[in-house]
Structure formats: structure tokens, C-alpha cells
């Protein structure tokens, strides 16, 4: 009798479990049939009336029915849970092409970037980086560099003169003077910075631009050392092997003085508009430090010699990024500056 | 400076270097060549032609001429020149030369062209076609030849007085090419000085030499002379003036010819001008002089400004029959000063300011005598050379040894013979014994250019060719370079700022008066530029803000919002001393459409990032600041900068907040790295406290009050939030307590809390 009842209940419940459409209906069935006061519990209550033999048989049947129903319930529940999770995740769709909130990365000025790069290069070669003032004395800017008053070389550098009797430095070379006094021989130093020439501004001329002065003083520094050094340095800056040549150039603070040309990187020396068909591009002035300059820097030219050079950083930046209007570098226009 | 290849070649025995290569050789060994150009290539094709007939073309100013060109046959040419007439001898340019073609003009066939002196490149004369007195049709124009012009950058000749003339450059080219330089003929007949000379200051005028000539005919120079001057950029004027210019271009010795009949008294005086003295010059201008100028004077006053320009009244004219020819030497700096002061740079002053060689004056006069006899037939020298000479101190012979030269150049295989050969080729006197050199300097290199052994390194180096040196790595000690900490700091700061979304700008060190006034910066605090070329450069900035303000308004035209910064120097006047240059950071946050509060807190956040531990305290606003949005940034009780919003009336289309920090102070006040603190081992306790406050109470003040009254066990007081409701404003704080050596008991916490509540209740109600 109980056996029949039990098998009918199990069959009917299994059919109901298969038919439910929501997790709540499934839970209601679980409580109704498998709950503490559910139908199976009622059946087991009646078992007390049975004989021990019968009890054993029915007990087994009861456990089997319970196990079957629980499995069916779990299977359906897992199905409902997975569907619910999938539905939630689907609702959580996000448009990842929408912009990110907050400020993005700012840009460093291209001159800052190239300066840092070149500084690192020199520091790795044992050079000290020095800073000098924008406003200089006439003595440091000219006289100490072997350019006395009324020297025609003063015409080569249109100078901003100031109400306090001083001037805006026309080159970074005065830092040579400061460097010699500060460091003493032997020394290796560079001085990057802002320099000024009293000129009308147009696409290729600026009154404010950036140079990097370099100087090395030691015993027996020669022209052959200078050539080696400049070639090494420029190869590192341009990230390729470069060919350089020295030719005579006149700068009062060096003797001998040179113009250093680099073989045109555009045409490789065969001639193109950039190098005006010559195959060479004039890059920087350099030379052996004039004995008068060493002496004024407190260094004995009979014991020490040195080389010095001036690298035009504004020019390098313009070459690297193919900038055709020099004014943009100090124009403060973010449309330009955020490109770097 | 332009050099004629033909002219250079005349001074060199057997020059075989072709014109096309000479520019490059000069560039590599001597001075920078800016270009090489053919000049007068058409002279190989242009011929003398006889006009057979010339008929006007009705209704035009043109005529049609039939010309016998000899070589090319009889040609029909349309000509616009008024002087075109039958029987004349002129120049015929065949098609293919000077851009001339065969064409139909006004329906008339024209083959070739009859040309003016200007069209031929002989002189500036362009009134009609050129006329010849004699010559055979078909013959080349005598004296006019195809040439090559080499242009040398003047700057690279600054130190070389001798290279301002062809003879000096020829010496270089001869040495480079390994050919001998031809000697100059410089013989002058002896005779009594033709004029008395007085030099009042031998420093300003070390030498004055002169010759007098009579029976002079002033006329146009022969064509060869005209073409030569024209080819190097000098205008032919008349035979006398042309000779002086020719010698200036040849020997770098400026000369001047006076109409001797117009000089007063028998004496030439070289003296400084009297203050206010006037000198009417050749160029039609009258110059007012002072005692810083040197003049050449006669009994009547100045007849020329020494070394710069000759006088007008005594200039050569068509009626001149006697001349006094001057070749003098003047002090370079004095000429440069005068020429700068009078704003008058002439071919003469440009040469004298390079320190010319006094030995040259007599050489030039001797050459002039020969040339004048060619160009002014019948001219006669009167008397002999007048020459007053105060020789410059001699440059002592220069000594060095071969080893030293080798070390300077970095060429260990350099031989004594090479050094001797090179120095001799450019006219140095050389004695060498066992590698010990004694070198004498030629007069034209001794005025300023060469006086040290280092100067000779250049002479030897350039002639060997720097390309012939083997690059050698220097042997240097490996030491860690001493690096100033500011560099690393500024670099790190820039990286940090860009990481926070700020873009770097560079502004000029200049501001103008309007900009300074707009921000209320006292004009008198600025260092002033005394010679600005352009507007906007008259003051040096005492603040980054004027240019930053410009950046804001410029970029507001393009962007809804932006962040930018500049690191640059403020320049503060200190009387006659060098000014104080203080590095500053100015950072900007701009929003076009919001109320600006977010900008200020963004910059406050930035301040805390850039300068950890800094605080912000409201202060009275400066005129360009928002009157209620202005504060000082404080670090360790010292003001290190400002945080403020630009006054909205100064920012055209939005709100801009600024953080302006003095980076010298920031660096000086940064705490040094210390020892670490052990981590807390016992738990902490915290409670929240809400304080009713006045509407404009400062959170910072309340927080400070709580800190002060919450006792020594307070670890942290944190502002949580702010609420304004029916009962007014209140602020809520979280107070965290703890002890290093134990866990606080509930009673201890309660006691502290009660004490604090009482204090707060007494102060804020
Ligand atoms: Zn090229």
C-alpha cells in the first residue's frame, strides 16, 4: 500500500519538477515534497505502523525516491541559476569605446625631451651638467671668451642690452667660464639652456633659442680626440652611424676653430635640397679652447688643453620632428605641444 | 665677399684647379664658400657688330636694324634703344645667350639682340646699347671674359684682414694648390714728398701714404676694368675711382682719391674731429662728428671721415685734372666705433675694422701708379711718395716644438718637414732645429690674427686637412660626475606633472609693459631691455603669470578644458648686480563651462602631489586674482607659492585656476629622508564627530581646533564631509586614537571623546 503511494508520489513530483518554469515554483515543490513537513516526511511518519521487515523495504524505497527527487531538483536549480547569471551579465553590457574619465597624460615640451636625452648621453660619458643665468655680465659673455669690446665678432651676435648694465646671454659659452672656475681641471661639463639674440622673429629666426655647450679639459686633449668624440656623440643622437668633417671656422674663444658638418642624413651625401646639393649639413661650431679663455678660467694652458662645442638644440628638435616654423616652440599652443 | 677666379688666377703661377672645385677647397682649408657662379659665360659668344641700316618701326619706339656680325653673318634685329643707328659699332648677342631667342616682334623677325653694358654685365649703364670706338665685326669684346665668381661668407673672414682682397685669397689658393704666388710689382720712383702729412694720434692712424698726379683725364674705365668691378659687386664710376676700388678688392687696402685742386693749404692732417664738426660726404649726406671720430682734414676742415667715407666737395669730377691719392692705415676699433655710431658701413670700414696691414699702403700706391698710367693716358706723377709711418710693435717670433704640435693635433706621425712646408707656403718665416721651431709672422697676419703658437696649430691643421687626422678616443678617468640635485629634481617634477595630465609650455623671458600693468606688477621692479627690436620685449619677466595668462586665453579659443604648466625663471632686479633668477612652476587648470571650483581643487590636489605635506591658507587676493578664491601654499610654516583663480574679468571665456610655486623654496624645504617608523602593533579606535559651524567657517580651522583639543593619543583627524540643512552647516570628522604600547580601553576612548565634545560645544554652537 505505502509502496504504491510512494511510487505514485515520486512519479507525479518528477513530472511537476520537469514542468516548472521558475526557480520559485521549484522551491515550492521542494518544500511541499522534501521539506520537514513535506509529503515524504508524512510517509516516513506512517512507517512506524509497519513491521520491521516491511520497514526495511519501505525505508529503502523512501531513500531512493528522496534521492531521485533531490537530483531532479538540483539539476533544474542549476539550470535556473545559470540562466539568471547569464541574464545579469547580459544586462551589464558596457560600451568600451566610450572615453575614459579623468585627465590623460600631458606632454613634455620637445625641447625638454631632447635635452634630457642628450644630458643622459653626456652623463654616461662622465660629464657634469651645469646651469647658468639667463642674464650675464658683459665680461662673461664676451671678454672672458676672448671677445674684447669693439671686436668685430660682437657683430655676429646681436645682443639684448639691459638697464642694469648687463645683457641677455647670446650663447651658453659663458657657462664655460663658470664651469672652469667651479670645477677646476680636469673637467668634463655641459650646459644646456636658453640664449637670446636681438633679431626679428619669423618662421626660421627666433630671438630666444636653446643651445648646449660642452667642454672637456684635460692634459693632451687634441683635435683627433674632438673628432672622435663628436662622431660618437652625434651617432648616438641620430641613432645611426654618421660621417662628420671639420673645416676652418672662426670663433674667438677657440683656436683652432671649426665648423663641424655632418654628412646629409636625407641623401647620404649625394646632394639634395636639404643640404643645398652639397652632401653636407653645417651642424655645430667647435674647437680647441683658446689659451686666453683657459687662463681666464684659472687653468694653465701650458699644462692643460681642451675642446669645446656648442650644439643648437632648437635646430635638432626642428630636424627631428620636421618642424617648419620655429615660433611654434614658444607659442604655447596646446594643439602643437600635445603632439609630443 | 666675392672673388673672381680669373683675378685669383692672375696672381698664381700655373693654377690648374678648375673653377668648379675651387669653392670646396677654400671651404675645407680657409673659409666658408657660400656659392660658385658662372659670370659672363656669354662673352665667349657675344661679338662686335656693325649696324648697317636702322629703320624705325612705325607706331613704336622700336627700330629694325640690319647688322654685320662677322662670325654669324648679317642679321636682322629689332632694337628698342634710342641710340641705334647706321654705322655704329655695338655688341651682338646671338640666340641662346642671356636668354635671347629668335622671335617675331611687332610682326618683324628678330634674330639675336643688340645689348647695353648693363645687359652684358659690364657696368650699370643701361641708357642705350653699348658703343665701341673701334673693332672688327665678329671680334670678341676686348677685355671681357667668361669668369667664375666664388662667394665667401664674410663672417668666416672676420679674423683675416688679408682675405678681404684677391691677392690674399690667391696666396691661400696657391698654397692649397701647391703653386707659387706671383710677386707684386711695387716699385715707386724716388722723389720729394708731394704733400706734407701730420698725424696727431699715431695709435689711431699708424700710417698715411699719398701720391700726387697731374694731367689726369677723368673718363669711363676700359671695359675689362668695369667688368671686373661689376663681377665682384662694385659699381664702376670713373677711371680714377675705379682704380681705387680695384686695388681695395685686390689688396684689401681701401684708398681714396681727392681732387687736389679742391684741397686747401699744402697739408693733410689726420686728427680727431671737433665736437659738432660737420663733414659733407661723397654719398650726399652731411655727418655731424664728435671727438670719437677720426677725420682727414685740410686747412678748411674735414675732407673725409677716416677709413669710412671721403668728402663730397673734394671728390673726383669730370673737371678734375690733379689728384691726391691716399692709402692709409687706421685703428680697427676706432673705425668700427665710428661706422657703428654713424650707421655707415662701407667697403672701406668693413676692411679697416678687421685690422689691416700698414705695410700695404705703399704696395697699393705703387700698383695704383701702374694702373692709372693705363687708364688715364698722359697722367704724370708729381714728386715722390709722401709717407708718415709709425710702425706697430713687432710680433715676437713664435716658438714651439714638434711634439707639442703633434699632441695638439693628435697626429703623432707629423713631420718637421711637413710643418715647415705648410708654414712657408703661407709666407711664415720658419727656422727649425731638431723639432724646435721659431716662426716669424708676415705683416698681414700680425695685426691681430696670429700671435700665439696655438694660432699656428690652425694653420698647420687646416692645410693638412682635418679629414687626414685619425679620430682617437680620449683617455679619461672614469669618475662619477658630480650632478647638481636641481637637475634631477626638475626632471622628476616635469615627469610628475605630465603624468597628472599637464602639458608643458615654454614662454619667452620677456613681457611688455601692458602685460605687466594688467597684472599690477610694478614696472620699476623689472629689468628693462634697452635696445628691443620688436614690441613685447621691453621687460624681463618677474613672474611667469603674464605669459601664462596669454596661454590661457589663446588656448581657450580651441579647447573646452585643458591643463598646462611652465617651469621657468623669474628675473628680479638687484640694482647693478646680476638679477636674482628664481625657478618657478606655474600650473593651470582651465574649464570653459563650469564654476571653477573643480579647477581649484584639482590644483590643490596637484600641490599635495608635487609638494607632499603642504597646506593651503586663504590670503588677501592680488588684483588679478579672484577676490574670494586666493590662497597661499605653505610648507613647514613658510609660504612657497599661491593657489588662486584668475580674476574672471581677465579670462575671456572660462575659469582658470593657477598654482604658482617658488621651486627654490620648495627644494630647500623638502624634508630630508629619515629613518622609518616601526609599524603599530596594537589596534586603534576611531569615532566620528559632527560640528555645527558658521556658513563660511574653514574646514582647516575646525580640523586644527579638533587636533589641538583631542589630546596626545590622537593619531589622525580626517575631514569626512560637509552638510548644509535646515539647521545650517555642519562638518563631520573622524578621529583615530591609539597608543604605541597597548590597546586603549573603552573608558579611555570615552573620556577623550567627552573632553573633545565639551571643547567643541564651547567653541562651535
Ligand atoms: Zn642632402
Oligomer: heterodimer
Cα separation of the termini of chain B: 90 Å
Largest sheet of chain B: 7 strands, mixed
Distance separating the two termini of chain A: 90 Å
Main β-sheet of chain A: number of strands, strand sense, barrel status?
Answer: 7 strands, mixed
Question: Spans of chain A of 5+ residues with little confidence (pLDDT < 50)?
Answer: none
User: What is the number of E strands of chain B?
Assistant: 36
Strand content of chain B: 25-35%
* Sequence of secondary-structure elements of chain A: HHHHHEEHEHEEHEEEHEHH
With helices defined by DSSP (H or I, 4 residues minimum), what is the helix count of chain A? 11
Report the largest inter-chain contact.
Answer: A-B, 89 and 97 residues
Walk me through the topology.
The complex is a heterodimer of chains A (340) and B (765).
Chain A lengths: L1 H18 L3 H12 L4 H8 L5 H40 L18 H15 L3 E2 L5 E2 L1 H4 L25 E2 L5 H10 L3 E10 L11 E11 L4 H16 L5 E5 L5 E10 L16 E10 L1 H6 L8 E8 H9 L12 H4 L3
Helix pairs in contact in A: 1-4, 2-4, 5-10
Chain B lengths: L1 E3 H6 L8 H11 L3 E7 L7 E10 L6 E6 L5 E6 L9 E5 L8 E4 L2 E4 L1 E2 L2 H4 L26 E6 L13 H12 L18 E4 L7 E8 L8 H9 L7 H13 L3 E5 L7 E6 L5 E3 L5 E3 L5 E5 L2 E5 L3 E2 L12 E7 L2 H10 L5 H6 L7 H16 L4 E10 L8 E4 H8 L6 H10 L3 E5 L2 E5 L2 H4 L6 H12 L20 H15 L3 E2 L5 E2 L1 H6 L20 E2 L4 H12 L4 E14 L2 E15 L5 H14 L4 E4 L6 E11 L2 E9 L8 E8 H7 L15 E9 L5 H11 L4 E12 L2 E10 L8 H18 L2
Parallel strand pairs in B: 11-14, 25-28
Antiparallel strand pairs in B: 1-10, 2-10, 3-4, 3-6, 4-5, 6-9, 7-8, 12-20, 12-21, 13-20, 14-17, 15-16, 17-18, 18-19, 22-24, 23-24, 26-27, 28-29, 29-33, 30-31, 31-32, 32-33, 34-36, 35-36
Amino acid at each position: 500500500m505505502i509502496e504504491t503511494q510512494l511510487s505514485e508520489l515520486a512519479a507525479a513530483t518528477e513530472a511537476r519538477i520537469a514542468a516548472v518554469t521558475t526557480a520559485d515554483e521549484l522551491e515550492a515543490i521542494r518544500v511541499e515534497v522534501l521539506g520537514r513537513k513535506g509529503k515524504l516526511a508524512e510517509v516516513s511518519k506512517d512507517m512506524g505502523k509497519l513491521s520491521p521487515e516491511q520497514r526495511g523495504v519501505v525505508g529503502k524505497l523512501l531513500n531512493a525516491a528522496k534521492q531521485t527527487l533531490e537530483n531532479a531538483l538540483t539539476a533544474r536549480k542549476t539550470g535556473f541559476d545559470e540562466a539568471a547569471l547569464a541574464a545579469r551579465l547580459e544586462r551589464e553590457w558596457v560600451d568600451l569605446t566610450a572615453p575614459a574619465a579623468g585627465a590623460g597624460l600631458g606632454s613634455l615640451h620637445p625641447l625638454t625631451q631632447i635635452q634630457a636625452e642628450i644630458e643622459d648621453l653626456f652623463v654616461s660619458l662622465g660629464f657634469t651638467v651645469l646651469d647658468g643665468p639667463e642674464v650675464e655680465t658683459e665680461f662673461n659673455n664676451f671678454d672672458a671668451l676672448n671677445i674684447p669690446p669693439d671686436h668685430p665678432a660682437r657683430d655676429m651676435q646681436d645682443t639684448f642690452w639691459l638697464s642694469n648694465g648687463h645683457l641677455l646671454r647670446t650663447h651658453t659659452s659663458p657657462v664655460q667660464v663658470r664651469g672652469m672656475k667651479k670645477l677646476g681641471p680636469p673637467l668634463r661639463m655641459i650646459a644646456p639652456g636658453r640664449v637670446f639674440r636681438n633679431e626679428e622673429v619669423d618662421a626660421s629666426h627666433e630671438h630666444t633659442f636653446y643651445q648646449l655647450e660642452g667642454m672637456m679639459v684635460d692634459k693632451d686633449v687634441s683635435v683627433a680626440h674632438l673628432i672622435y668624440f663628436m662622431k660618437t656623440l652625434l651617432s648616438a643622437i641620430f641613432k645611426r652611424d654618421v660621417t662628420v668633417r671639420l673645416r676652418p671656422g672662426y670663433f674667438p674663444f677657440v683656436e683652432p676653430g671649426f665648423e663641424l658638418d655632418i654628412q646629409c642624413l636625407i641623401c647620404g651625401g649625394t646632394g639634395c635640397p636639404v643640404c643645398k646639393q652639397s652632401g653636407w649639413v653645417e651642424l655645430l661650431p667647435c674647437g680647441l679652447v683658446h689659451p686666453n679663455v683657459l687662463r681666464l678660467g684659472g687653468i694653465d694652458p701650458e699644462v692643460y688643453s681642451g675642446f669645446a662645442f656648442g650644439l643648437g638644440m632648437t635646430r635638432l628638435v626642428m630636424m627631428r620632428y620636421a618642424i617648419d616654423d620655429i615660433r611654434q616652440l614658444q607659442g604655447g599652443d596646446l594643439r602643437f605641444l600635445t603632439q609630443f | 665677399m666675392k672673388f673672381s677666379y680669373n683675378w685669383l688666377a692672375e696672381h698664381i703661377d700655373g693654377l690648374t684647379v678648375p673653377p668648379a672645385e675651387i669653392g670646396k677647397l677654400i671651404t675645407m682649408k680657409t673659409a666658408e664658400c657660400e656659392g660658385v657662379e658662372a659670370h659672363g659665360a656669354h662673352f665667349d659668344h657675344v661679338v662686335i657688330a656693325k649696324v648697317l641700316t636702322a629703320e624705325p618701326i612705325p607706331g613704336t619706339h622700336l627700330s629694325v636694324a640690319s647688322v654685320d656680325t662677322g662670325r654669324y653673318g648679317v642679321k636682322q634685329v629689332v632694337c628698342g634703344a634710342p641710340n641705334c643707328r647706321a654705322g655704329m659699332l655695338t655688341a651682338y648677342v646671338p640666340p641662346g645667350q642671356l636668354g635671347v631667342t629668335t622671335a617675331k616682334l611687332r610682326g618683324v623677325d628678330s634674330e639675336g639682340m643688340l645689348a647695353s653694358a648693363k645687359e652684358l654685365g659690364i657696368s650699370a649703364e643701361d641708357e642705350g646699347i653699348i658703343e665701341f670706338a673701334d673693332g672688327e665685326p665678329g671680334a670678341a669684346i676686348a677685355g671681357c671674359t667668361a669668369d667664375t665668381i666664388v662667394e665667401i661668407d664674410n663672417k668666416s673672414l672676420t679674423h683675416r684682414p688679408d682675405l678681404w682682397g684677391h691677392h690674399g685669397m690667391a696666396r691661400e689658393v696657391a698654397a692649397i694648390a701647391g703653386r707659387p704666388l706671383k710677386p707684386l710689382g711695387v716699385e715707386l720712383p724716388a722723389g720729394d714728398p708731394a704733400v706734407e702729412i701730420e698725424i696727431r694720434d699715431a695709435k689711431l692712424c699708424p700710417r698715411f701714404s699719398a701720391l700726387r698726379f697731374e694731367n689726369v683725364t677723368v673718363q669711363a674705365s676700359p671695359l675689362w676694368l668695369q667688368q671686373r668691378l661689376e663681377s665682384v659687386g662694385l659699381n664702376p664710376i670713373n677711371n680714377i675711382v675705379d682704380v681705387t676700388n680695384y686695388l681695395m678688392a685686390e689688396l684689401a687696402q681701401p684708398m681714396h682719391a681727392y681732387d687736389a685742386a679742391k684741397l686747401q693749404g699744402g697739408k693733410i692732417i689726420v686728427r680727431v674731429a671737433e665736437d659738432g664738426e660737420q663733414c659733407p660726404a661723397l654719398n650726399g649726406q652731411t655727418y655731424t662728428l664728435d671727438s670719437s671720430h677720426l677725420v682727414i682734414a685740410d686747412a678748411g676742415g674735414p675732407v673725409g671721415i677716416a677709413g669710412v667715407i671721403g668728402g663730397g666737395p673734394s671728390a673726383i669730377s669730370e673737371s678734375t685734372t690733379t689728384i691726391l691719392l691716399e692709402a692709409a692705415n687706421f685703428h680697427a676699433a676706432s673705425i668700427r666705433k665710428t661706422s657703428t655710431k654713424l650707421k655707415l658701413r662701407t667697403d672701406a670700414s668693413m676692411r679697416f675694422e678687421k685690422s689691416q696691414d700698414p705695410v700695404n699702403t705703399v704696395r697699393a700706391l705703387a700698383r695704383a701708379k701702374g694702373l692709372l698710367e693705363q687708364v688715364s693716358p698722359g697722367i704724370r706723377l708729381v714728386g715722390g711718395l709722401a709717407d708718415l709711418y709709425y710702425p706697430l710693435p713687432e710680433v715676437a717670433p713664435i716658438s714651439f716644438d714638434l711634439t707639442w704640435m703633434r699632441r695638439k693635433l693628435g697626429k703623432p706621425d707629423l713631420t718637421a718637414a711637413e710643418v715647415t712646408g705648410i708654414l712657408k707656403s703661407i709666407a711664415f718665416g720658419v727656422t727649425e732645429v731638431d723639432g724646435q721651431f721659431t716662426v716669424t709672422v708676415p705683416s698681414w697676419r700680425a695685426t691681430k690674427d696670429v700671435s700665439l703658437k696655438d694660432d699656428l696649430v690652425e694653420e698647420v691643421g687646416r692645410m693638412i686637412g682635418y679629414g687626414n687626422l685619425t679620430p682617437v678616443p680620449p683617455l679619461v678617468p672614469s669618475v662619477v660626475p658630480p650632478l647638481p640635485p636641481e637637475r634631477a629634481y626638475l626632471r622628476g617634477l616635469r615627469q610628475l606633472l605630465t603624468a597628472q595630465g599637464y602639458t608643458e609650455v615654454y614662454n619667452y623671458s620677456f613681457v611688455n609693459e601692458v602685460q605687466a600693468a594688467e597684472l599690477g606688477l610694478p614696472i620699476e621692479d623689472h629689468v628693462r631691455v634697452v635696445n628691443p627690436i620688436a614690441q613685447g620685449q621691453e621687460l624681463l619677466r618677474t613672474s611667469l603669470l603674464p605669459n601664462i595668462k596669454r596661454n590661457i586665453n589663446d588656448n581657450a579659443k580651441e579647447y573646452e578644458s585643458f591643463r598646462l604648466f611652465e617651469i621657468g625663471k623669474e628675473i628680479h632686479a638687484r640694482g647693478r648686480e646680476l638679477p636674482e633668477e628664481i625657478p618657478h612652476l606655474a600650473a593651470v587648470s582651465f574649464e570653459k563651462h563650469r564654476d571653477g571650483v573643480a579647477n581649484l581643487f584639482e590644483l590643490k590636489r596637484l600641490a599635495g602631489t608635487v609638494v607632499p605635506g603642504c597646506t593651503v591658507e586663504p590670503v588677501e587676493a592680488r588684483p588679478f586674482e579672484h577676490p574670494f578664491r586666493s590662497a597661499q601654499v605653505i610648507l613647514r610654516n613658510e609660504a612657497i607659492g599661491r593657489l588662486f583663480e584668475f580674476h574672471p574679468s581677465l579670462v575671456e571665456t572660462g575659469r582658470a585656476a593657477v598654482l604658482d610655486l617658488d621651486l627654490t623654496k620648495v627644494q630647500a624645504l623638502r624634508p630630508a629622508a629619515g629613518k622609518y617608523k616601526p609599524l603599530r602593533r596594537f589596534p586603534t579606535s576611531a569615532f566620528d564627530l559632527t560640528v555645527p559651524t558658521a556658513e563660511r567657517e574653514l574646514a582647516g580651522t575646525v580640523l586644527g581646533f579638533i587636533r589641538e583639543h583631542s589630546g596626545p593619543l590622537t593619531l589622525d583627524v580626517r575631514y569626512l564631509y560637509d552638510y548644509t540643512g535646515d539647521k545650517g552647516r555642519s562638518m563631520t570628522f573622524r578621529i583615530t586614537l591609539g597608543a604605541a604600547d597597548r590597546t586603549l580601553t573603552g573608558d579611555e576612548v570615552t573620556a577623550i571623546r567627552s573632553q573633545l565634545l565639551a571643547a567643541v560645544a564651547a567653541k562651535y554652537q
